[in-house]
Amino acid sequence: MRGVRLLVGTKKGAFVLSADAGRRRWEVSGPYFAGWEVYHVVGSPADPDRLWASQTSSWFGQVVQRSADGGRTWAPVGNDFAYEGDAGTHLWYDGTPRPWSFTRIWHLEPSLGDPDVIWAGAQDAALFSSADGGETWRELAGLRRHPTGPSWQPGAGGLCLHTVLQHPDDPSRLLVAISAAGVFTSRDAGATWSPANRGLRSEGVLADPDADVGHCVHKVVAHPSAPQVLYMQKHWDVMRSDDWGASWYEVSGDLPSDFGFAIAVHAHEPQTVYVVPIKSDSEHYPPEGRLRVYRSRTGGGDWEPLTDGLPQEHCYVNVLRDAMSVDSLDPCGVYFGTTGGQVYASADGGGTWSAIVRDLPGVLSVEAQALP
Amino acid sequence: MTEAPGFLGDLGERALVGTAVVRVRLPVQLRDLAKLPLEVAVQVDGAVTQRSVLDALERAYPLLVGTVRDRASALRRPFVRFFAGELDLSNAPPDDPLPTPVASGKEPFVIVGAMAGG
Lengths: 372, 118
Prior knowledge:
The complex is a heterodimer of chains A (372) and B (118). Chain A has no helices and 30 strands. Chain A has strands at residues 3-10, 13-20, 26-32, 37-44, 47-57, 61-67, 75-76, 89-91, 97-99, 104-110, 118-123, 126-130, 138-139, 160-166, 174-179, 182-186, 194-195, 217-223, 226-234, 238-241, 249-250, 263-265, 273-275, 293-296, 304-306, 324-326, 334-337, 343-346, 354-357, 363-371. In chain A, the strands form eight sheets. Chain A has a four-stranded antiparallel beta sheet with strand order 3-2-1-30, with no helix packed on it. Chain A starts with a strand and ends with a strand. By secondary structure, chain B is α/β, with parallel strands linked by helices. Chain B has a single domain (2-113), classed as Ubiquitin-like (UB roll) (Roll). Chain B is 23% helix and 24% strand. Chain B has a six-stranded mixed beta sheet. The longest helix of chain B is centred in the middle third of the chain and has 11 residues, at 50-60. Chain B is globular and about 35 Å long.
């Protein structure tokens, strides 16, 4: 491996952090798209120098940028995200119908095998796909037209589609997660969708805590060598599925708090999972002001705090849902960014941590790329 | 700057016909995005209105489609404002004729991002 590249989206631009395989000395470049919110920057698994960035602004809307040279230069591609047909309505916070309205792209998910294929998760929740590298986009409207669509309500961050997974053994199987509608899966490349929330419980949030839809799923991750196994950080609860979302069970175990946003799986150990517990849904910072990553080596249930190099007092940052990632080197690198602008790195699977940078704008997303 | 409801009627301006070259001043975010200077000149055929100027701007610089006006509604994005001199045209009907100094190219049609914190 040549090294590692971290693609960091922040509230005021994007940054690229690069290191050799030792991952001790880092070069920082950026900001790219200065002044704009960059919700996500990601590279193609099929062509690591092909990157995409979701650049967004409450003032000037949505732009998708693409790089062909690992982030040194960028050019805008298509930004026409049109809902198919009559968009209809979903529910607003107050329970009244509200027309579907495009705001931004939260998450970009490149195809595992084709560098021209990419999906984009939108607010208000919809899934778009491109087969030409992002030049043109088409809504996979079967998702939003699911019979439950008119009942979907936004979470505090908006009605956002933030997770897209492609099954590694079957490219026609897709999974998405929406706050606060929950998980949906497709077996026909996104034409039709079914809720995949059995086992999720949202007590005190939903009238029926076991409802088919309406759960505030924060993030879902998978491991390529155990494709049926999924891990989820829900609003409250860390969950696991052993059947690609057909059913879920709780693995929060002995975590100090099972609220949080980010979750990641070790690159080589499908049973090793990382979360960053956050105190509560009203106090978005680590319990006791101590920033701790928790690692389970047993697929959840039993968790150990990882603290070496992380602030253990007076720390009141948050780690957002797309702001944690792993590389595929050995030992596995683990990375996360905070709303306080720090990007922390561990080159030993979480045993020790150090800050690569401390003073970026608030971090929205971190993606690690191992460079061949 | 002052809001100008109905200012066009008060000034008695009329849309210019034929072809006009209109100066458009862009905010820094859009200049950076499209790699453009502070001002661009666009050719407007027929009546010089907010809509015809923005249509011409988007034809000349397609990267700006969706950044000034919402793609779906074709309405001004909420935090974008339009000015001609000291007149705030943001809420003026989009098909009203623009003031003569703008339509004649003497003054620019100014697009700004609304002031906000954060």
